[in-house]
Amino acid sequence: MGFVVYGVIQLVLHFSGWGPMAKWNWEIDGDLWKFVLPFFLALLWWGFADSSGLTKRREMEKEERRKRDRRRKSVEALGMTPQDDRRKGDRRGPL
Fold first, then answer.
1. What is the pTM of this model?
2. Degrees (nearest 5) of the Cα angle 51, 10, 39?
3. Any residues with CB less than 8 A from the CB of 19 and at least 6 apart, and which?
């Protein structure tokens, strides 16, 4: 995502005529590679992240976090916090 943001910032600076990017040209043998490079690197990164399973792993961790938070909120809403269990003690008995 960072590569895409950087590439968009470069384009905005170029078209607004601000900074050194304003003087870059769009010729193939000129400065075109400077505009294309961040987007190309973003494609490489996304391909690597997808093929290595990094994206799926992050999604699974995010889902587990959401489940854990939802369970915690449900237990708190029922008034069954871990602190309450320790004060009351175990009332289940031997069976």
1. 0.57
2. 20
3. 13
Alpha-carbon gap, residue 43 to 54, rounded angstroms: 15
Token digits of residue 85: 């269990």
Structure tokens at 75: 């237990």
* Phi-psi group of 27: left, alpha or beta (phi > 0 → left; psi -120 to 50 → alpha; rest → beta): beta
d(CA 77, CA 39): 47
Contact by Cβ (8 Å): 19, 13: yes
In sequence order, the 6+-apart residues with CB closer than 8 A to the CB of 21 are: 10, 13, 14, 34
How far is it, in rounded angstroms, from Cα 23 to Cα 7?
16
Between CA 9 and CA 63 the distance in angstroms is: 32
pLDDT, tens digit (0-9, with 9 covering 90-100), for 7-49 = 999 989 888 988 888 888 888 888 888 889 999 999 999 888 8
Tokens of 72: 């915690």
